[in-house]
Amino acid sequence: MAFIEIAEMKKTFHGDGEPVKALQGIDLEVAEGTFLGVMGPSGSGKSTFLSILGGLCHPSSGRIAIDGIELYSLGGERLADFRREYLGFVFQSFNLVPYLTALENVMLPLAVKKRMSTAHKRDEARQVLDRVGLGKRCGHLPSQLSGGEQERVAIARALVNRPPLILADEPTGSLDTVTATEIMQLFRGLNEEGQTLVMVTHNPENRDWFHRTVMLRDGLVSDDCRQRGKMQEEVI
Ligand SMILES: Nc1ncnc2c1ncn2[C@@H]1O[C@H](COP(=O)(O)OP(=O)(O)OP(=O)(O)O)[C@@H](O)[C@H]1O
Ligand SMILES: [Mg+2]
Questions:
Q1: Are 62 and 6 in contact (CB under 8 A)?
Q2: Could you tell me the domains of the chain?
Q3: How much is the pTM?
Q4: Which residues pair with 38 in a beta bridge?
Q5: How many whole angstroms from 190 Cα to the centroid of ligand 1?
Q6: Is a pLDDT exceeding 60 seen at residue 229?
Q7: Strand pairing partners for 28?
Q8: Whose CA is nearest to atom 27 of ligand 1?
């Protein structure tokens, strides 16, 4: 059994005009520990794919299982629990809360942990901020941080629950090359520690970091390529 199993995943958006067939039947199996890249032209369905994989958007049809758990047969509350336990999200727009410090932003996913003391939450958040090299920026507001630093806060927030799967949509899209490389190194480090990563990107240079790259075109997988790249060993 693969860690991620996707069969016949379809999504059609029904808005005011013509329905949009964003995904037209995706079949994919991903092994645990894979660093997977998802690429393809604008509008090919990458973000839709990631949102469905992340339990944020119901597919029109098809099945998705992560670690053997059928995502969309879980009810709303259990799906939310699953997301909290299994998934870390990093979005391009960071989605940091502007009036909270870096530390407070990272503590947010721990808010639901009623039995964890605030001091413990602070410690955990500080540790992950250290991990992403921002130990000295804990008290800064997002507006007092550079783009790359904000991105790293967003990554720290995705990591604080130690999720087995991290989903990232264009995490390096708005960063300069040096900062983008730092972020890719950070992701690779996490992957080497065992986390499975799925990253959407436009940048062809990022392919070198992935174990495997899936290309989407018109809501279908047009290419699926396994490579060694900058990784030490192949997972799949
Ligand atoms: N909520 C929505 N309602 C209607 N159509 C949508 C919605 N979200 C996405 N779409 C459409 O679905 C298609 C796929 O969109 P998606 O955002 O997944 O593409 P993408 O590959 O992530 O593109 P980009 O590289 O520009 O981010 C597009 O045609 C888009 O306009
Ligand atoms: Mg997108």
A1: yes
A2: 4-226 (3.40.50.300)
A3: 0.90
A4: 200, 214
A5: 29
A6: no
A7: 6
A8: 42
